[in-house]
Amino acid sequence: SVTSLLGPAQIRELAEQAGIRPTKTLGQNFVIDAGTVRKIVRQADVVVGERVVEIGPGLGSLTLGLLEAGADVVAVEIDPVLARLLPTTVARHLPGLERVDDEPTADGAPVVRLRDAEGHDRLTVVLSDALDVHVLPGPPPTALVANLPYNVSVPVLLTFLERFASLERLLVMVQAEVADRVAAPPGSRTYGVPSVKAAWWASARRTATVGRSVFWPVPNVDSALVRLDRREPPAIPVTRGEVFAVVDAAFAQRRKMLRSALAGVAGSSEAAVTALVAAGVDPQARGETVDVEGFARVAAQLAVVAR
Ligand code: SAM
To answer: Cα separation of 77 and 278, whole Å?
Structure first.
C-alpha cells in the first residue's frame, strides 16, 4: 500500500528536483494536505478495483490517494514535465510496479503505464490537454475524480460527461464560485449556463468548502468540492446541441425576457413567444427561472418549427 501521501515538504522537494515553477495559466496549485486528499477520495465513493480518470494529476497528491483507496487510475496531464515525473513518484510510493512505455492513444497522446506483478495496470498516464482526449486507454472509467485546473473546469466537466458515458460519478475540486454555479438550482442568484448544462447530464451538489492553505502555491480564491451523479437526460425528443443553443441564447443577455433573448434562435420574437407558450414557459420570464426540462421543451418546440 501507499506508505504516505504527499505533504508540504515532499511537494516542494518534488517541484524543486524537477525544476517545476507552478504556472497560473495552467492552474497549477498543488494539494499539500493529506486530509483534503482523503476527503476527496471518500466523497467520490471510490471502490477497490474501480477505474478512475483523473484530470491534471500534477505532482501526484490525489493520484496517490486514489491508488491508496484501490482505484486503477488513468491520469491526463497537459504539462510534459509533470506527466514524465508522475510514474516515478508513484513507483517510489507503491513498490513492485513495472513501467511500460505504451503506444500513443488514437488521439496521438503519449502513454506510460505502471503495472503490478499480475500484469494489471494501476496507473496510466496520458500526456494531453484533457479537452483533446476522445479515447482513453484501457477499460472505461466509472468515476472522474480531480482537482481541476480552474481556467477549464466547466468545459472539462461537460466534455467528459458527454464523451465518456461510462462515467457515473464525478467528484471535483473547483473554485468556490464555480461550484456554486454548477450546483445552483433554478431561480437562485448563481443559476446560469453551467448550471443548466451540468443538469442536462447529472445532478450536482456542493459537498464541502476548501480553504486556500491546503495548496502550494496558495491561490487567491477559495475552493469547493462538487459531486455530480449522472442521470438520464430529460425524456424530450431533442438533441443536446439544440438545447444548449437555446440555453446559450437565453443567458447571453441576462436581463432580457426570454421572448426577446430567444428571438434570434427562433427567427423572430413572435416565433419565440409561440414556442415558449407551447412549451409551458412564460415568455416574460428570464432564463434564470427555467429548469433544464423547460429549456428542453422550448428547444423541442423550436426544432419542430425549424423542421
Ligand atoms: N491534482 C494535483 C493536485 O491536486 O495537487 C494538481 C491539481 S492543479 C489545480 C491542476 C493540474 O491540471 C496541473 O497539474 C496542470 O498542469 C493540469 N492542467 C492544466 N490544464 C490542463 C488541461 N487542459 N488538461 C490536462 N491537465 C491540465
So the answer is: 46
Alpha helices in 116-223 (DSSP H): 153-163, 176-183, 193-201
Give the number of the atom of ligand 1 that is nearest the alpha carbon of residue 76. 25
48 in a known ligand binding site = no
- Helix, strand, coil percentages in the chain from 3-state DSSP, rounded to 5: 40, 20, 40
Ligand 1 contacts (CB < 6 A) are 26-31, 55-59, 61-62, 76-79, 82, 129-131, 147, 149, 152
Rounded-to-integer distance, Cα 266 and Cα 278, Å: 13
Q: What is the pLDDT of residue 192?
A: 97
Distance 254 CA to ligand 1 centre (A): 31
Strands (E), 25-141: 30-31, 51-55, 72-77, 98-102, 111-115, 121-127
Q: pTM here?
A: 0.96
pLDDT band at 236 (very low <50, low <70, confident <90, very high): very high
C-alpha cell read off for 228: 455530480
Ligand 1 atom with least separation from CA of 57: 1
The three cell numbers of residue 134 are: 476522445
Cell of 145: 475524480
Distance of CA 181 to the CA centre of its chain: 14
Query: Is 2's pLDDT higher than 70?
Result: no
Which residue spans within the chain are E strands per DSSP?
30-31, 51-55, 72-77, 98-102, 111-115, 121-127, 143-147, 169-175, 202-210, 215-216, 223-230
